[in-house]
Structure formats: structure tokens, C-alpha cells
Amino acid sequence: MSKQYFLGIDIGTYESKGALVDEEAQIIASHSCPHTMESPKPGYAEHDAEKTWWADFCEISKAILAKSGVSPRDIASVGCSTIAPCCLPVDKDLNPLRKAILYGIDVRAVEEISYLEGLYGKHQIFEKCGTPLTSQSAAAKILWIKNHEPEIYARTDKFITGSTYLVAKLTGKFTIDHYTAATWVPIYDIEKKDWDSDLSLFCRREQLADCKWTHEIVGEVTEKASRETGLAAGTPVTTGTADASAEAFSVGVLDPGDMMLMFGSSIFMIHVVDHFTKDERLWAGPYLFPNTYAIAAGMSCAGTLTRWFRDNFARDVAAEANASGENAYAMMAALAKDIPAGSEGLVVLPYFSGERTPINDPLAKGLIFGLNLHHTREHVYNACLEGVGYGINQHFEIFDERNMRTKKIMAVGGGTKNEKWIQAVANISGKTIHTAVVEMGAAYGDALLSALGIGFYQNSEELTKKIQLKRSIFPDMAVYQTYAPYREQYYLLYQATKDIMHRYS
């Protein structure tokens, strides 16, 4: 019998990645391609599903086959993930009817959220779903389409998220994993682990995908998909999931007390627990497998904030990096290496696209506080990194407050390559942070989940034994104490300015 391989492809906010993994859980080929996120209006975030999601998937699949020389017939399974939850209306032929409305960084449905809270009751929604209704919800965006684009709403055959779209393109089957479905507040029933029986305000039941567990095999690559992707027809395909949960799996975040801290375009956290736990500041729902649960959290800006800084205040650095082949973010971090903890009195609220948890305020605004004539752009850059760190620490304090014992924090994502940033987070929080040897992220997790789905691995514990730690970032507790007044200032600044933020939104 020939050797088996497992393919995983992930679609991110600004980049898509793929990995081909062998039987020893080693990556033998990978490929990535950048893309853009469109923001046609302030607070809007969109992707072209066909030209970005599917085109990237096809490009990556074909490139990996070419690079590896592996026969498509030897690829035993395929898994995928995307940013989530997104809202994409499609017609009966799976043609997108508009660009996909992205996850919580798209805050257009503020009025719909307010309406639903008034209709059902804010607390009642939380009690039923275990998660507050926020800009993260795709259900509120269905209602936005109904209210603002009635002609598109009338033509919609299904409302789907990113992973559903890719799996449907591959197999013709419409599925969504429980982890992602639980974020469609308020229409997912956490007790039944299925959609609500009454969806009449939003859509018809048949307009939603079927809920499955992440690693379940739901279909096979069709002849049409085979021609477009290069994969063999008949290749098993899993349900798929959100990028964050796939990334968590990729670094062995499975047991209660395990936590993933994802440094991507945004910050995302998953804390695994052994029972359903609710907190109105956070999100809760099923995890990847039956009888597992996740407390999740997400900040709207991380990599998007450093990208904003680069594009607006460090164009010379970006140009030099482009000419030399160096990394612009590494160069900016090097320029700021001597800026002390606290950025000499500068504090940034990283709410440049509203904020998700823990304040759940789509009208929040970014703030640079404490500027004086001594400060340089390097101070501002450092304060941006620290501002994200203060926000992360705010979540850690909530976990501690709720007695959710954190045994292991695994950091993932492109931001982990910024040594200054990850050390700042460790120092701000006083927590030890680990990274894994394989840092491919969600695409690697997708491949491993697909291997689990076809039974190559008997259970997740067997698989995660292959995941090894690369390094541990320990906090400097003296610097932790230095950050004390800045942590407090971060909390106070939002409380002091939120009424002004809302007044001028």
C-alpha cells in the first residue's frame, strides 16, 4: 500500500495557506498566497468568496501537488478552515450573490443587534446561547441583508459561512461544524446542538447548513471540483471549521486547561473546559468533538493594527524591506528595541475596528493616549504592541476570576515571530507562553483533523503526542510590576471615553 498524505487548507483574513502532511505528521509541502480584505465603508469587512476563497483553495491545492510530486490518489483526506463566522448568501447553483460579510471586525449590523436584544432580551439571549449577541454573529448579518438588500435576500438559496462554501464547492454538501454554528447567535440551540426550531425572523431551515462535528467525513471531491483543484475525485472531505479552532488543534490544545493564543490579523483565544461555562464578556460553545467545550474570546485588531501602522507611519521601512527582502515588521520591532516597558507613558487602546471581547462594543474607537514631544514613532509602535498585550491580559484576568485554571498557553500565528511582542505579552500578564515546533497553523490542524476523520489516528490523544514544544517565553516579573500602572490605565481609559466614542460614532 502506498504512503498516505493529508491536505489542509486555511483561508485567512489577508492570506491563505495550505499544508500537505505525511503519516508522521510532518509537512512535506506547503504554499501560501496573499489576498486583500475589502472595506467599502468604515466598519465593513468583506471578501470575494469566489475570487478569494475558492481561487486561493484551487491555487494552493495545485501548487502543493506540483511541489510535492505526490499523486492526487495518495491524498487520503482533505480538511479546510476559514475565518469565521462569515455570512455569504448564495443561489441554488452556489453562486455568491454578494461579497461575504466577515466576522466580528465587520460591525455593520449594530441596529439589527440592538433590535434583537430588544425583541428577545439581552440576558435571555445569553442564557440560551451561552454567548452574548455581538458583531461576531452571522445571524445578525442575515438580518442586515434582509433589511438593507432585500433583492439579494429574496434570491438567496442558502446563507453560509466560509468553510461551508469550500466544502460545498468540493462535495456539493452543505455542512457547518458545531464550533462555528454556535457563533450564529441567537439561532443555534446549545442544548440541542442544532439550529432553532423557529428561524422565521431570519430565514428558512433549509437555507442553513447541516451541523456536524469538525472531523466528520461529510462527502467526497466531485468530478468538477477535481478538475478545478487537481485533487482526485472521491477524496474524503471533512466538515471543516474556523481558522482559530483548527489552529488550536494544530498545537495540541485539547485538554481542559489548555489554551490557544492566536496572533493573527486579530487576536483569538480558545480555553478548553470540561463543562459548559458562561460569562457575558466571553463566548462559549461546543469545541471540536462531542463532550468538549470552549471558552473563546477575540480582539478585533492585532496584525491589522501593526499593518495600519506600517502603511501609514513606516512606509520608508516597508520600501526598504521590499527592496532588501527583509521583513518590515521585524525591522519595525528592531527600531523599537530600546523603547522601555510602558512606552514612557504612552497607552494605546487597540479598538481601531470596534472591539469584540471583553467589552463587546462595536462602536469603540482606537485611542493613543499620553503623547508628548519626546515620543517618536517607535514609541507609538511599541505602545501598539503593548495595547494588544493589555487587552490579552484583560482576558487572562477574567479566566483567573472564573477559576478556569490555565495549565498551558500555546501561542500561534504570525505575531509569534515578533519576539518583542510576545515577550511584552508575557511581561504584561505574568504568564509563561509556549510555541510549537510546527508553526504552520490552521492548515496543519486541518490536515491532522482530516487524518483523524478517516481513522488514520484512532483518537486525538494519539495524534497530539506528535506535537512538540519549541520554546517557552517566561515573564520578567520585575517588568510585570513595572506594567502595573499601565494595566490600570488601559482599563480606565475605555471607561472614561466610551460615552464620547458612542456620541460621535
Automatic annotation (TrEMBL):
CDD domains: ASKHA_NBD_FGGY_RrXK-like. Residues 262-451 form the Carbohydrate kinase FGGY C-terminal domain. Keywords: Kinase, Transferase. GO terms for molecular function: kinase activity. One of its GO terms (biological process) is carbohydrate metabolic process. PANTHER family: SUGAR KINASE, XYLULOSE KINASE. This is Sugar (Pentulose/hexulose) kinase. It comes from Flexilinea flocculi.
